[in-house]
Structure formats: C-alpha cells, structure tokens
C-alpha cells in the first residue's frame, strides 16, 4: 500500500504544478490586453489635469475674437476647441484659452503652455518639420485690403507701395511671389497683430493690409475694400507638439469625423464662413 500512496502523491504534485503553470500562462496572455487599454501619456496628462489648453486667436472676428463687452472669446476655432475638450474630457467647458498671434503660436507649443494651437495656422512643409498638423479644416487665400479712396483694383496698382503684414505670417511670401510674377516691386512693414496692421492702414503708414481673406473680412469697414484677387491658397490645420502623437491622432480623427457628419459645415455657416 505504501508504494501506491507514494505514486498517488507524486501524481498529485505533478498535477498541481501543471495547473500553476497553466495559470501563469493565462496571466501572461491577458497582459497585452491590459496594455492595449492603457491611455497614452499625452492624453492622460490632459485627463489628469482636467482642462484642455489651446492657443487661439483673440483678434480675428469669426475665428477667435475676444468680445470687449463680455470678455468672452468666441468663433469658429473656439467651437473646434470645445469639441475636442468634449471628446477628451466629456465637457466642452473644460478649456483654457491662451491668446496668440502669428509669432507666438510655435513657442506656446514648444514650451508646453498649450496642448494644441487652433489659430488660423497655415500648414506648410517647413512648419511640418517642427509640429504635427491635422488635415486641413479650412482653406482660404491671401487677399489685399486697401482704402476705397486709393482707387486700387489689383496688385499691379500697388507697385511701389507699402504693404502691411503680420510677423511670421505666410502673407508676405505669397504677395512677394505674386509681385515677382507680375514684374512689380512692393515693400513690406511687419506688425505684431492684425489690429496694428489695420491701424497702420487707417493712418496711412501702409497702403495695403494683406492676410487671408476671411481674416480681412473681420476688419472691413466703410472706408476700405477687399480686392478680388486671391494668392497662394492657405490651408488651416490644428497643430500639436511632435512628441504628442496620440493627441495628434485624436485631434485629426475628431475633426475628420466632424467633417463627415456635417458638423464642420454647420459651424462654418454659424460664423458666416461657408
């Protein structure tokens, strides 16, 4: 009887060891699933913070404009920021907006002050080397605003004139290339904000205010006119930091979903941009 008991005991021990081995294998097989469910670090940082930070325009009517009466910043791109906050934090009001001009958009991302820039930021090959961009959500062309009294009908009439542009914008390059093609010479003065360019036009320091047409329409008044020519189509994209790849994908997917659903078109119509 003793040898039989010993055999049974050995079999039991082997069966127990095999069961433990199978359990161990089962545990390791579930690990990849857990990894798949893990929230990417760049998105987790936003969730942990509880607020989505965006760099936006505060001086461009219809896109991002701070109402002097209420202090609220409103516009098409502000609504896009809210849609992204809703996607990430389930609350469109959990946003922190930082006003930006053309010159400061990049540094805000570089320094980590904002998660995304939605600020009439034109997508260029050069800028793609520094930042990730979403697919375009709006396309426009560079235009020219002049005083009605100038009598100018097109770029040719601005030969020898001074054109005001914003610092670090793509407008200067677009107009210079067009001027070269038409065989005329123009000069430029750069300003920190669009409002400063408009003030320079009103005071006669420059003969023309040049930027994307949709932006110019926000500064149109009874004394000015926007000429019909358009130069170098400008595609606006949402910009994120190069290292924030998961956030880039989420932003792009969300904006593309809004295009397909018609939500982007509704917002464009809401702000008179369609």
Structure, described:
The chain folds into two domains: about 40-135 and about 235-270, Periplasmic binding protein-like II (D-Maltodextrin-Binding Protein, domain 2, 3-Layer(aba) Sandwich); about 140-235, D-Maltodextrin-Binding Protein, domain 2, CATH 3.40.190.10. Residues about 5-15, about 15-25 and about 25-35 have low confidence and may be disordered. Strands 8, 9, 10, 11, 12 and 13 form a six-stranded mixed sheet that branches. Helix 3 (about 75-90) packs across helix 9 (about 245-260). It contains ten helices and 14 strands. Helix 6 links the parallel strand 9 (about 160-165) and strand 10. The radius of gyration is 28 Å and the shape is elongated. Helices cover about 45% and strands about 20% of the residues. It has about 270 residues and is of the alpha/beta class. The longest helix is centred in the N-terminal third of the chain and has 35 residues, at about 1-35. The protein has helices at about 1-35, 40-50, 75-90, 105-110, 125-130, 170-180, 195-205, 215, 245-260, 265-270, and strands at about 50-55, 60, 65, 75, 95-100, 115-120, 130-135, 140-145, 160-165, 185-190, 210, 225, 230-235, 240. Keywords: Signal, Transport. GO terms for molecular function: ligand-gated monoatomic ion channel activity.
């Amino acid at each position: 009887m003793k040898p039989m008991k010993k055999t049974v005991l050995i079999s039991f021990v082997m069966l127990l060891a095999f069961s433990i081995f199978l359990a161990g294998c089962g545990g390791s097989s579930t690990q990849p699933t857990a990894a798949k469910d893990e929230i990417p670090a760049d998105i987790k940082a936003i969730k942990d913070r509880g607020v989505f930070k965006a760099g936006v325009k505060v001086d461009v009517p219809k896109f991002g404009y701070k109402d002097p009466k209420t202090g609220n910043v409103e516009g098409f791109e502000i609504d896009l920021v809210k849609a992204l906050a809703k996607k990430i934090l389930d609350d469109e009001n959990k946003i922190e907006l930082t006003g930006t001009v053309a010159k400061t958009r990049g540094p805000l991302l570089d320094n980590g002050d904002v998660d995304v820039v939605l600020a009439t930021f034109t997508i260029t090959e050069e800028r793609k080397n520094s930042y990730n961009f979403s697919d375009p959500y709006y396309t426009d062309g560079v235009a020219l605003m002049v005083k009605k009294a100038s009598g100018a009908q097109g770029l040719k009439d601005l030969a020898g004139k001074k054109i005001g542009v914003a610092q670090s914008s793509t407008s200067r390059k677009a107009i210079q290339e067009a001027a070269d093609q038409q065989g005329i010479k123009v000069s430029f003065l750069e300003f920190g904000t669009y409002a400063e360019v408009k003030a320079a036009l009103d005071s006669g320091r420059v003969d023309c205010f040049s930027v994307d047409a949709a932006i110019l329409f926000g500064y149109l008044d009874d004394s000015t006119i926007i000429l019909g020519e358009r130069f170098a189509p400008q595609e606006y994209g949402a910009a994120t930091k190069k290292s924030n790849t998961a956030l880039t994908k989420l932003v792009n997917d969300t904006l593309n979903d809004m295009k397909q659903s018609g939500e982007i078109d509704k917002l464009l119509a809401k702000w008179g941009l369609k």
